[in-house]
Amino acid sequence: MKNIFKDNTKNYIYGGLYGSSGSYVINKISSNYDNTIILLNNNSEIVNFSNELKLFSGEDKKISQFLEIESFPYESFIYDINILSERLKTYKNIINTKKNIIVTSYSAVSKYLTPKDTIVKYFYQINKECKYNNLLSSLKDLRYDRTQKVLNKGEYAIRGSIVDIFSTVEDQPIRINFDGDDPETIKVFNLDSQISNNSIDTFTLGPATEVIITNEVLKTYKEKCKNVFDHEYMDDIEYDKIINNLPHPSALNILPILFDNVTSLFDLVIGNKNIILSLKNPYTKIHAIRERYKDFYDKNKEKKYILDYKTLIVSNDDLLKSTSEMIKCSLSLYKVETSLVAMNSPIRKLPSLLINNTFKDPYKSLKDYIQKNDNTIIFCIDRKSLVIEIQKLLDSLNLKYDLLTDLNKSSYSKKIYIIESYIDDGFIDYEKNISFISSKDIFGSRSISIPRKSKNRLIDNYVNDISTLEIDSPVVHDSYGVGRYKGLVNMDIEGIQTELIKLEYSNDDILYIPVTSINLLKKYSGHTGLNIPLHNLGTDYWIKIKNRAKKKINDIAVELLEVESKRLASKGFCFKNNPDEYQRFCDTFPYEETNDQIKAIDNVIIDMQSNKPMDRLICGDVGFGKTEIIMRASFLSAINNCQTIILAPTTILVEQHYKSFLNRFSSTAINIGRVSRLQSTKDKKETLSKIKNGEIDIIIGTHALLSKNIEYKNLKLLVIDEEHKFGVTDKEKIKKLKTNIDVITLTATPIPRTLNSALSQVKDLSVMVTPPQNRKSIVTRIVKWDKDILIEAIDREIQRGGQIYYVHNEISTMDNEIEKISLLNNKIKIGRIHGQLDPKHIEIEMHKFLNREYDLLICTSIIESGLDIQNVNTIIINNSNKFGLSQLHQIRGRVGRTNRQAYAYMVIPEYTPITKDAEKRLEAIDSVESLGGGLELATHDLEIRGAGEILGEEQSGQIYEIGYAMFTDILNKSIEFLKTGDNEDDPDSIEIDVNKSCLISQDYINDILTRLKYYKKISSCKTFDEVTYLCDELIDIYGPLPDYLENLIMITKLKLQLRDKNVKYIKILEKTINIEFKDKEKINPEKIISNMNQYDIKILKNNMIQFSLDNDDLFKISEKINNLVGSIL
Predict the structure, then answer these.
(1) 171, 205, 239 - which closes a domain
(2) Per-residue pLDDT averaged across 65-93, rounded?
(3) Looking at residue 803, which CATH number applies to its domain?
């Protein structure tokens, strides 16, 4: 594109940018300039626009996202590490790259930044020339956090000669293995597995903060403070943090007194030819931000130590000076009247190409456009399944096409191309005769699917994760019962270094168990607090409890298997699928399915096409995609002329489902109905008549749908949402209704992996633990009750068209709280609900809130397990110090159900001190913002509830007695035995006592919990391949295995070899080895006699033999033991 903008004194206007053509045109404009700065409204726009831009730009252009820090004026904030990373990458690109495209917002460019000459010093290039000590010094200077294991950007870990680093400006963490002071290898590694893979030559080490307080900066700060603040400021905690170089979350708010010359983003860019492209007048927008800061400053300057807003927000004079040499152009979606400074792009709007399932040929519009148009057509399709659908369509029309991987490497010699990539809306470039068609143009409104850098590691079962134990955590030992974990203890026993697990039992009795027996230990979940009943050592009380529990759990297993066998023996309806029609419905789903969702959908469709009645339980948190699964099942039912019931526990949930179904099925001929208390009598009567006549395909309602007065024409599918919330009578009706029809039950209660494993053998179960892509973690702030902060929180949500939950758990003072909120903002409409109101009144109020008749809902914790209202993305929890940890997690989870940033304010009293326990709870909830983090937050109460919901509440007693982990372990084994008759021994039931040290030394792995984790991993190995893989992992992460650990690995392998060989106990002494067998009958006396001379065997009492030892090599000893045992059985 030729350069049409040349005069930096003019303000150009460029119009007619339909659809996603903005990114297409800007990419062409940018080729004429050194730096292109694009100003948008917010971070969401920045991310979406950048992703489109990447499709159209070449590799020679660096696209940077200079994101804004989402905070209030003058607010102390902790950076979102991903926002910090993108900002730092922008600095890096400006420093190192000649051609840059910087996508940013008005807010981000309005603030003064660290001086350019200082920023340059923050970035180091690391390669094989770097030295060990110099690297560690640089990491410290750049404010990286040293941790036991690197999990996030800005962290590093040292393990002997190995240094792990996750640079803030790199996409993958780096592992450097040093040989002395010099790097031997530099590799990237996987955060989940911690295993390294590809070698690299160099990487950039960026700072872990935008502001680094050096001695020079400190000197400037001390001098300037005297001129800006009074002497009392020197006693302020903020001053103390800076002076002592402590982490300072609001350093950007004091930049002008840290540095002599602050700068703006516009000053940082280099090059002679730069352009600013903006949707609105940047000077006007930045002036509005300046006024917002001025307002806050005027209100608070007498109460707080804050700098004059003029020193923080770029002044108009500085803005004009910084941009005076830059070309300035405003972008418009609409065509403009042309002049010397106003022109229009060569872009036209696409006609409607949407598929319509109500037409005989749903693709008619698209087919006509392709066949009647001479343009080159490029399909930009953002999902593989949709790419396949487009390919099928083109094949059916006998049209040739090419698949592209890069738009910039094609000369467009053919008519039709397909590329798997994202643009929001299509458009036509009539100058080039190219039509770009997006997924949205064909399949309807879609949500951009940006791959999120995974924060949630492989979600394991925290109920039985030994590596999460803290001192005094309750544990249950297979042989001794419930005790308390007291840590790892090193002991010298007869000259052999041994690491033992210390356990405390009743009457302060202490038990030490070898780490090699860690698999006999499980984390206890049952009772909470310090009043857990510890068992007595030296009595048979635990054996009695365990045997009683085993019998009852075995009865559960028998009952589960009986129910399953009855289901498999009955005949159900076999649904037929129309693949094309079904696929078209799937393609209109506006989000990217998660892997869990795809698996659950596939399982449901396979179940429905079977001639056995389906009874599938789907577990997943609210917002994880369960509704789409039942929508696809309901669609399959409807195209088979069958009816579906969606049974929900509350009227308001019925209304929500009804709206969702109407919207999702809008492009189909399928009829949706609902039976609700909120319907008029006439409307309800008409609905019941249509149900009877089969005119309604999908019926949504409460327990009213179970009434004998409702007649269904051809009911074949029942969906039950949260069955445990229905009453006993309703559950009995549901049980009768289930006969010979397909049933899907939905629950939001977490089902841990161990219970999942047990139930999946006897029940169709789908568990969804993966959050949808683009779902953002909730920004959590703990604040003292502060009028200004709450005003900002409420105003910000209202201004972006959202709603607010205000949780106040004291009904008696709710009226006073409503008055306080009204004083904060007298324009907002406030609704209220609490448990003492009539249920129908609560439903009406919630219905009003759902329909946006209220801006803010003040409520008690009644919303803890409530609706999925996607428009509510700010929650204020008053007196949050009075809530329990899992309760806080549940309540906070009411927001953040979309890709919009959600905020949770944990408000604590302004003057009343809070307890230490409350402080710890709030610290814990603040530290776990990541999606899926609920499993990290002591959610055993939810998990026990989950077992109760599925297996029956009467099982709670068994769980409390023996602990959740042992309960599910016994259930697993009982089901396995009843199904297969296989009662295979655990290799850890073999005890081996060896006269050598077998442990992971503290020198090798310093962190106790990490050592515990690896002891658990080693003892959990079931095959030699697993042992080998684990050894490779240890060597990669921690270096060569020391001798003591080699011994432990050797003993583990020996246990695996002796599994199923009748061995109970082995004691390896200096000259002899004793072996005790479990079952005397399995020993062949003749074989012992024939091997006596070769092994010098002696027969001892109690099923034990002894044989001589002629060397102390553990490998040869293991080989000899294995050969002997094999030869005498």
Answers:
(1) 205
(2) 84
(3) 3.40.50.300
pLDDT more than 90, % of the chain: 39
Note whether residue 762 is domain-resident.
Answer: no
pLDDT tier at 960 (50, 70, 90 boundaries)?
confident
Q: Tokens 């001695």 correspond to what residue?
A: 215
Strands 427-429 and 434-438: antiparallel
Q: List Cα–Cα distances, 425 to 313, 335, 438, 898, 952, in angstroms.
A: 35, 17, 6, 21, 51
User: Higher confidence at residue 203 or residue 494?
Assistant: 203
Residues 614 and 741 in one domain: yes
Q: What's the rounded Cα separation, in Å, for the pair 386 and 1025?
A: 39
- CA 963 remoteness from chain centre: 28
Run of H or E residues at 620: strand 615-620
Q: Is the pLDDT of residue 112 over 50?
A: yes
Q: What are phi and psi of 778, to 5 degrees?
A: -80, 125
- How many CA within 13 A on the CB side of residue 105? 18
**Domain with 411 in it:** 350-355+362-443
Distance CA 274, CA 323 (A): 9
Q: Which of 443, 473, 491 is the last residue of a domain?
A: 443
Distance, in Å, from the CA atom of 721 to the CA atom of 646, rounded to the nearest integer, reads: 7
Both 270 and 318 in one domain: the answer is: yes
Looking at residue 436, what is its pLDDT?
A: 95
Residues 787 and 866 occupy one common structural domain: yes
Token duo for residue 855: 């801006």
Q: Are 691 and 834 within one domain?
A: no
831 with 922, same domain: the answer is yes
| 624 within some domain | yes
- Name which of 873, 876, 926, 875 is nearest 900 in CA terms: 873
End-to-end CA separation in angstroms for the chain: 84
Provide the CATH number for the domain around residue 1108. Answer: 3.30.1360
Q: Which residue is associated with the tokens 């509704």?
A: 627
Q: Tell me the chain's radius of gyration from C-alpha atoms.
A: 34
| DSSP codes, 106-141 | HHHHHB-B--HHHHHTT-EEEETT--HHHHHHHHHH
Q: Note whether residue 500 is domain-resident.
A: no
Q: Using CA atoms of 173, 178, 183, 184 in order, give the dihedral in degrees to the nearest 10.
A: -100
Q: What are 406-464's pLDDT values in tens digits? A: 887 667 777 899 999 889 899 999 989 999 999 989 987 654 443 333 333 333 343 34
Domain total in the chain: 6
Q: Are residues 192 and 314 in the same domain?
A: no
Statement to judge: residues 105 and 184 lie in one domain = no
CA dist 902 → 234, 335, 695 (Å): 36, 36, 41
**pLDDT score of 464:** 47
The pLDDT of residue 532: 73
Alpha-carbon distance of 106 to 109, in angstroms, equals: 5
Q: Is the same domain home to 185 and 285? A: no
Helices (H) and strands (E) in the chain, counts: 36, 44
Helices 814-824 and 787-799 pack at an angle, to 10 degrees, of 70
- pLDDT single digits (tens) 584-627: 899 888 887 888 899 999 999 999 999 888 988 888 776 788 99
In this structure, what token pair is assigned to residue 820? 């306080």
Helix segments in 981-1023, DSSP class H: 1008-1020
Classify residue 979: in a domain, yes or no: no
- Is the pLDDT score of 110 beyond 50? yes
* CATH number, domain with residue 368: 3.40.50.11140
Distance CA 716, CA 532 (A): 48
